[in-house]
Amino acid sequence: MTEQQMKNRKMLQDGAALTALECLDESGGDMDYAWESIQGYCLTSAENTHIIHEAKRAYKQVLRMREEEERLRREAEAASWGGLIGELITLGSVILFFSWVWRACTSF
Asked: Is 30 left (phi over 0), alpha (psi -120 to 50) or beta?
C-alpha cells in the first residue's frame, strides 16, 4: 500500500469513527445503528469492529464527562443557593439586631 493509500485509508477510518460516535450519541448507545452507519465506508469487518469498539469506549468517556459536568453544575447551583440563604439569614439578623436597639432606645 502506498503512503497516499494509507493516508486515504486512515481518513476513511477517522470518518467512520466520527460517524460511529455521533450515531452512538444520537441513538443513546445503540451499537447496531452505529454499525449500520459505518458500512458505507467500505472498510473491512475487522476495521469496522475495531472502530465500533473504540467509538463505544469514546462514547462512555463522553457520558462520564457529561455526568461530571452535570454534577459540577448541580454543586455550583447548590452552593449559590446556600450563599443566598446565608446572606438572607445575615440580613435578617442585622435587621433584628437594629430593631432591638431601636426598641431599647425608644422605650425610655
From this structure: beta
| Best CA proximity match to 56, nearest among 26, 36, 40, 34 | 34
Query: Which of helix, strand or coil describes residue 30?
Result: coil
pLDDT tens, 43-96?
888 888 888 888 888 899 989 999 999 999 999 999 999 899 999 999 999 999
**Torsions phi, psi for 35 (to 5 deg):** -60, -45
Q: Identify the band that residue 108 occupies on the pLDDT scale cut at 50, 70 and 90.
A: low
**What is the reported pLDDT for 28?**
86
State residue 92's pLDDT score.
95
32-53 in b/e form (b: 16+ CB < 10 A) is eebbebbeebebeeebbeebbe
Instruction: Tell me how long the chain is.
Output: 108
Query: Cell numbers of 86, please?
Result: 446565608
- Beta carbons of 31 and 59 less than 8 angstroms apart: no
